[in-house]
TrEMBL record:
Gene Ontology MF term list: DNA-binding transcription factor activity
Membrane spanning stretches: none
Any one of the GO CC terms: cytosol
PROSITE patterns: HTH_RRF2_1, HTH_RRF2_2
Gene3D superfamilies: Winged helix-like DNA-binding domain superfamily/Winged helix DNA-binding domain
Protein name: Rrf2 family transcriptional regulator
Length: 159
């Protein structure tokens, strides 16, 4: 299982928006330049975040994006789901029903697939863990693990 790099860029950029005053926004150009990636790519990511209600766009020359929700109310899972969509990671194809015994009519297939149940359970545990981590948590964690100067310079860049 692998998430696209869009999830990583989204989480990084959303942290940068936390300290932006509520009446201001950050332009996609500044966010893309800071990350060293194309505006087009980041615009697509932010379009998905906007559609999910995580960010809101501010039109105009000084426009850009700002958080539409409190950082406490945006989980990692919210971001993953916004960027990646809603499809399950494991998609059971019921291959058990094609097994020799079922094809020959010796046995009837059970109504569930044990492998699918295990995979769905594991996926739910991962989602629960990602739901427990919010942008607020990430911001606090970055304050703890990164040098103070890096955090200050990042905030200055976007102010």
């Amino acid at each position: 299982m692998q998430y696209s790099v869009g999830v990583e860029y989204a989480l990084h950029c959303l942290v940068y928006l936390i300290d932006v005053p509520s009446k201001e926004s950050v332009g996609i150009k500044d966010l893309a330049e800071f990350q060293g990636l194309s505006e087009t790519f980041l615009s697509k990511v932010f379009g998905k975040l906007s559609k999910a209600g995580i960010v809101s766009s501010v039109p105009g020359v000084k426009g850009g994006y700002k958080l539409a929700k409190s950082p406490e109310d945006v989980s990692f899972w919210d971001v993953v789901e916004a960027v990646e969509g809603h499809k399950p990671i494991f998609q059971c194809k019921n291959i058990k029903d094609n097994g020799y015994l079922y094809r020959e009519g010796c046995c009837s297939a059970p109504s569930f697939c044990t492998i699918n149940l295990v995979m769905l359970s594991a996926e739910e545990k991962m989602r629960d863990d990602l739901r427990s981590k919010t942008l607020s948590w990430l911001n606090e964690e970055l304050n703890r693990v990164l040098p103070k100067q890096i955090r200050e310079e990042t905030r200055k860049y976007f102010s």
